[in-house]
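Lab notes, practical 5.
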Amino acid sequence: QQTMPRPSITTIAVLCCHLVSCSNAFTSPVTAPISQSTPRSSSTSLQATRRNFLHQSLTTTTSIILTSAAQPSLAKEPPVEITPTLVSETFAAIRNELTSPTGVISTLTSLIDNGSFEDILQYTKESDAYFRRAKLGKARKLLTDKDLKSEAVLMSNAVTFDLIGINRASRPGKESREDQLRYLEELKKDVEKFLELEKTIVFE
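Output from the prediction step:
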């Protein structure tokens, strides 16, 4: 019987981090990160919640990496040949979501302007899968700086945080255009920050 290859430590860490930090976040009826009853401003609450979210992600990722490192690996993923063309195309796909009329940002903006709360609930879930996991995940693998790879995980998780915020501000009884737009602005900034990683890639 053939033994299935063991996933890489990085793959295990990222997947588990996402499961621990974001599991059911798009559907779980937890308290919204921006509280209307707190005396703090919405902006202050947003930043505090973001720090807690990213801190939890970093702690979980570090713990999993240290635990998994002690276990023998049966097989490693084949290295990706990092070429200027591959890097350009990968980051262009992310940039397209930021600037294109059919990208994530424009689509969410239109849905928010139209008050399409049910569509927003569905679209934010889909965006986390095909945009954050697939496109940002692919770009992270191309980074040549190990420290930046870890930082890129936090950037990616910040995108999930933003999408969750928009999702929560669209739920029945909790609809808030103000909060939707605030998280949408944070999403733009986080994607722009992630795109800056492209210039750090070193070609051999």
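Observations recorded by the TA: Confidence is low (pLDDT under 50) at residues 1-7, 9-16, 29-40, 61-70. The chain has seven helices and no strands.
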